[in-house]
Amino acid sequence: MRPNSQDYSQPMTAASANGPAATPQAITVHEHSRVLEVAFSDGATFRIPFELMRVYSPSAQVQGHGPGQEVLQTGKCEVTLVALEPVGHYALRPVFSDGHDSGLFTWAYLYELGRDQDALMRQYEHRLAEAGLERDAPMPVRASGEGCSSH
Question: Which residues are 48's β-sheet partners?
Answer without folding.
Answer: 36
